[in-house]
Amino acid sequence: MKKVFIDGSEGTTGLRIFERFVGRDDIELLKIPSEQRKNPDEIKKYINASDITFLCLPDVAAQEAVAMVENENVIIIDTSTAHRTKEGWAYGYPELSDNHRNAIKTGKRIAVPGCYATGFITIIYPLVAGGILSKNYPVSAFAMSGYSGAGKKTIAIYEAQERDKELDAPREYALTQNHKHLKEMQKITGLDKIPLFSPIICDYYSGMLLTTPFYTDMLIGNPGPEKVHAFFQDYYAGEKFVKVMPFGKEAEYNGFLAGNACSGWDGIEIYITGNEERLLVSTRFDNLGKGASGAAIQCMNILLGCEEDKGLIL
């Protein structure tokens, strides 16, 4: 039985991981007393007593926690932004390639992808790897997310009885084009240019929808929507977590895709829509599921050699 510690267990990501561990008999969860959860000496003790430590912390705190590791056998799974593009860290998205899955399986330092980055990379990495999208394509994306992805302070603001009326409407942000996920979005996909990215926070708790638009005549081979759909079906064939939805599925939703439809689920859906000249590739998932906690637990399951979806909701 593996000993597991969650550093940051009272945040949204940590709480979801804790919830998914209920009923598991293959791990022993090390629980730091609530009054000690910010005590560096106690945190260090729990990290080094564990086989696997999940870091559900801000970037600086995550870096400090990694520096506390003295037991060379401790495996770190970090959900922060701090190590996603750092040398020596496995990127925690096993469906991208055999190399990614093997790096997680044999790694001791694993960085869980960012939520928006998950939706983006699910689309762009295969297109580049499959020779459909040139690395110098000027890629853009827009996305909507539930407010839980912004952390406990923002959750409190949205759920307050008295709040600003502007919170009733979707709000675009990161207007300076400096969103913290852009670095991994570019590096992991190998794009020459930083993507143009417009995220939108909405008045619902969790769920995410990210869309990338393309001109088909700027794609290699000029593929239309059905050919792109067939490509994604083949690329992600056999994967439990990545679901390429049937072509035309959006018609069942009257041509709409709702951002909150995958709340509470740990997989990710892919939709291909548009026409022979302009197409859209969209991903829909839970920002706290495949976009955070679900992905972290999937990585742990790979390390443990058990079913990748053990304890998760698919």
Note the topology.
Layout: E1 2-7, H1 12-20, E2 27-30, H2 40-49, E3 52-55, H3 59-67, E4 75-78, E5 90-91, H4 98-106, E6 109-111, H5 115-129, E7 140-146, H6 152-158, E8 171-172, H7 182-189, E9 196-202, E10 208-215, H8 225-235, E11 242-244, E12 268-274, E13 278-285, H9 289-304
Parallel strand pairs: 1-2, 1-3, 3-4, 4-6, 5-6, 7-9, 11-12
Antiparallel strand pairs: 7-10, 8-9, 10-13, 12-13
Helix pairs in contact: 1-9, 4-9, 5-7
Poorly predicted runs are none
Summarize the main sheet: 7 strands, mixed
What structural class do the secondary elements suggest?
alpha/beta
- Widest sheet: strand order? 8-9-7-10-13-12-11
What is the N-to-C succession of helices and strands? EHEHEHEEHEHEHEHEEHEEEH
Question: Distance N terminus to C terminus?
Answer: 25 Å
Q: Tell me how many strands there are.
A: 13
Net shape: globular
Helix % is: 25-40%
Strand content: 15-25%
Would you write up a description of this structure?
Helices cover 30% and strands 21% of the residues. By secondary structure, the chain is of the alpha/beta class. The protein has a seven-stranded mixed β-sheet with strand order 8-9-7-10-13-12-11. The protein starts with a strand and ends in a 10-residue tail after the last helix.
Brief write-up:
With 314 residues, the protein is an alpha/beta fold. The protein contains nine helices and 13 strands.
Features:
314 residues; alpha/beta; seven-stranded mixed β-sheet; 13 strands; 30% helix; globular
